[in-house]
Amino acid sequence: MRDVWIAAAAMTRFGRRSEKLEDLMADAALEALREADRQPEALVVTAMAPEGFVGEGNFASHIGTYIGLSRVPGLRVETATSSGAAALYAGFALIASGFHNHVLVVGGEKMTHVSTPRVSEIISRVIDPHERSYGATMPALAAIVARAALAKGLITETDMARVAVKNHSNGARNPYAHFQRPVTIDEVMSSRMIADPLRLQHCCPISDGAAAVLLTSDPTGLKLAGMGQGSDYLAVRYRSSLTGFRATQDAAKAAYKMAGFGPERVQMAEIHDAFAPFEILALEDTGLFPLGKAAKAVQNGELTLEGRLPVNPSGGLKARGHALAATGLAQVVELAWQLTGRAMGRQAEARVGLAHSIGGMASNNWVTLVEQVA
Amino acid sequence: MENIAASRCPDCGWMVAPPARICPRHPVEMTPTEVSGYGSVLSYTTLTVAPEGFKPPLHIAVVELQGGARIFCHGKETRALKIGRRVAIEQVDGIFYFANLAIADRATLFWKRRGGAPERTRDAVKSAVKRFFNVYAENGAGAPSPTEPTEIRTNATDTESTPAARK
What we know:
By secondary structure, chain A is α/β, with parallel strands linked by helices. Chain A contains 14 helices and 11 strands.
């Protein structure tokens, strides 16, 4: 297997955007092409639900043509809300296998032009049909997980609020973030209830945005050191544990194995905090903290930009925003910027970063390790 | 107590509800079976923002039935609910409801769904008798004894209980 390197990483600002999805994706893709100065031999495109949100299909050809790469063989990858990470994996595999030397991976989503109930309905299609037929939405399933974690004493309601506060504080320093203002613990804990015990300020927003990464077999100094995928039952009710995600645990194990190192070398993480408690659970599922210790790290401020292990320096899904298929790529873009000293205003010290992406209600998750080698 | 349709894997013995054609653990055809509509609450939530087709507040619980099959169900409220609490499952129009139901509530429920008055009364009484018998029989049979055996909560003022809550 060949080593795979990041030649360029780019993204648009996340948030409520007036541009078309195609233009957001073109902005990210063209920026990555300019930076990389390499012609891609293959194109991996991802959007979670362009059929539902923007009414477009045959999406790899659509985007390939729109960005002037119609002669470059393209394919579309989709694994629900982790589609960005899945697309990166496909690009990784194309290079590691020797099929291609340079691959452009681009992902995006455009949702804010659609009404919120409609957005929820489209996103809810990633949920098991029995569970969905009882009105289970993503916040509902996350609340069911959070309730179980609260009952087990893995988290407290204040810990959940602290995660949101920290991530907003980081987002306030990130010009690419959806929300660029801090929030207080009181604000989070008094925000309106969505799905008991989850409040509005525990939940990520509906964002538009796009991100692109150009991968290459040429050593650039920024190495995709390991990628792992983990899967679980679509149905949450089939799982033996509600308070940890097997898909994350398996993904992390696979990524560490490929990289040849463990969580002890990770100095920074971008975590899929679609709901605040998920950040705490993911820090344990990825082995960055022992079981039951991550909440303590949140309390001690270990996860801030100045802390021992900065988590979600971008602001995470909570503040940078969650543009579905763009998110998994945006996490890696943030790591690329951080590890090469280009995260202006929010720069932290790290040489090894971890990105964690959740697909659906954790049925198809990814862990990616990025290392600054040079 | 109502029985709930489920399926069992002939290889690993795992049970799932509603029934699935193939065991989610391996590609083996499952065998249809039924499980008793008693279980314990694994987790729950109340949605104050409900998806299209539902009316908030929407109470959802995940309940583990005897034999290990788990289902999602609706209920009247989650305020008094705790993880681990034992509940009865009732099916109305194919929808599962977890029930901490008092006899009065059950009567109302039957009143809403059945035909003529005498029939309704008879069904309500039958249901109450059945329920008491089941609780008694279950405790007698050495099943894990619920701390609050009948688990009855009255909330008869809440008329949104049941099928009507799902518009």
